[in-house]
Write a structure and sequence with these properties.
Blueprint (H helix, E strand, L loop, with lengths): L7 E2 L2 E2 L3 H8 L4 H10 L5 E5 L9 E5 H15 L6 E4 L6 H13 L2 E4 L14 E6 L1 H6 L7 E6 L6 H7 L5 E8 L4 E7 L4 E2 L2 E2 L6 E3 L4 E4 L4 E5 L8 E9 L4 E7 L4 E3 L2 E3 L1 H8 L7 E8 L3 E9 L5 H11 L14 E5 L12 H5 L7
Parallel strand pairs: 1-6, 5-6, 5-7, 7-8, 8-9, 21-22
Antiparallel strand pairs: 1-2, 3-4, 9-10, 10-13, 11-12, 13-17, 14-15, 15-16, 16-17, 18-19, 20-21
Helix pairs in contact: 1-2, 3-4
Length: 360
């Protein structure tokens, strides 16, 4: 594989791919291993899925799909040759790999830093672009204006965090995608909704990147046809509303939908509302109920000595949460000291639920 003549890594320019690989050994073993794989004769690269919704697995993705994904992101966000970018995600997973590929293909000046919760803590350099997970974004808010455009993925952005983003200069976008689509196929604005022509009414929905087509199956789940990044049409378990042929609203996972007394509840949408009043990590789920079929419960990650204080505050706060319908109010609250996580710190809902003994 070739690389763009303007590509730089941690301030260094290179004449050959071997020079890049040799220098990458000074950064990390994972970066070096990926770059060796990238510049090898192989036409595809093995990538690990995160395992957040199932068993982690290894899949082979064509290098041309990596390249096409990089080009689509650059076109959508207007990121040109010479873009100064910060890589603060691990190269073991697709998001980190794609930062390297974008820089190599597009001729970016990429700084790779160690993966930590606050990547800007000791960094005062300005950047055009970076990708983060929600925790990194939250802990970087005081200095996030150093980065002009940020994409955030790997987990939901809470309502509280989105409110904080309204006061920053950076343009921040949520991503929708998966390893099988070589990271995101759609982006959604999280701030700066007003344009010179007024409020962009479609800005709060996910907008497709170029060369992607979507539709819904009989379950109202998203189907992705993106031949530039995937050989096959991808059937997802994500329930959506199609706003236009280029925009959609994500409602939640089909396998998480709760049928409570004939009312279908989407946990992710309920969690978005509850995040305004709950600071701890939490999620909602349905458990068997003789009357309702399933009843909605709230599971909170909390030490036992803080439970009574939480219950008092929660019972008062939820009365004032007008966005929550009566069906979306949890029937019970359960507490766990620690949730079960994937290696990338995503909550494994079903395994976490298995830790709880329910008393109906």
């Amino acid at each position: 594989m070739n690389f763009h003549k303007s590509f730089q890594l941690n301030g260094r320019a290179f004449a050959t791919s071997n020079e890049i690989i040799d220098f990458s050994n000074e950064i990390s073993l994972e970066v070096s291993l990926f770059l060796k794989d990238w510049f090898s004769e192989n036409r595809s690269i093995d990538v690990n899925t995160s395992g957040s919704t199932g068993v982690p697995k290894t899949i082979a993705i064509k290098k041309e799909f990596f390249i096409n994904s990089a080009l689509s992101t650059a076109e959508f966000l207007d990121l040109k040759e010479g873009t100064a970018a910060l890589m603060c995600l691990p190269p073991k997973y697709i998001a980190g790999k794609m930062m390297l590929v974008r820089a190599l293909v597009l001729g970016w000046h990429l700084d790779v830093v160690s993966t930590k919760s606050n990547p800007l803590e000791n960094n005062d350099k300005t950047y055009d672009f970076s990708a983060m997970v929600p925790l990194q974004l939250e802990l970087s808010l005081l200095k996030i204006d150093l980065i002009k455009k940020v994409i955030v993925g790997g987990g939901a952005v809470s309502s509280k965090l989105q409110e904080k983003l309204q006061g920053v200069k950076s343009e921040v976008f949520a991503t929708y995608g998966m390893t099988e689509t070589v990271t995101h196929i759609a982006l959604k604005k999280l701030n700066h909704f007003t344009t010179s022509d007024g409020v962009d009414t479609l800005a709060s929905f996910y907008q497709l990147l170029p060369n992607v087509r979507i539709y819904k199956d009989t379950r109202n789940c998203l189907v992705i046809d993106a031949p530039k990044v995937s050989q096959e049409i991808i059937l997802t378990n994500d329930v959506v509303d199609l706003i236009s042929d280029r925009h959609f609203e994500w409602l939640g996972r089909f396998d998480n939908v709760i049928n409570s007394g004939g009312i279908k509840l989407h946990p992710e949408k309920i969690e978005e509302k509850l995040s305004k009043i709950i600071e701890q990590r939490f999620f909602v789920a349905g458990i068997p109920d003789a009357l309702l079929g399933e009843k909605l419960i709230l599971i909170v990650e909390l030490e036992s000595n803080n439970v009574s204080n939480f219950q008092q505050l929660f019972s008062e706060s939820i009365k004032n949460l007008s966005t929550l319908s009566k069906y979306e109010i949890p029937k019970n609250v359960r507490f766990l000291k620690a949730f079960v996580e994937t290696e990338t710190k995503k909550i494994q809902r079903s395994k976490t639920l298995d830790l709880i003994v329910f008393i109906n």
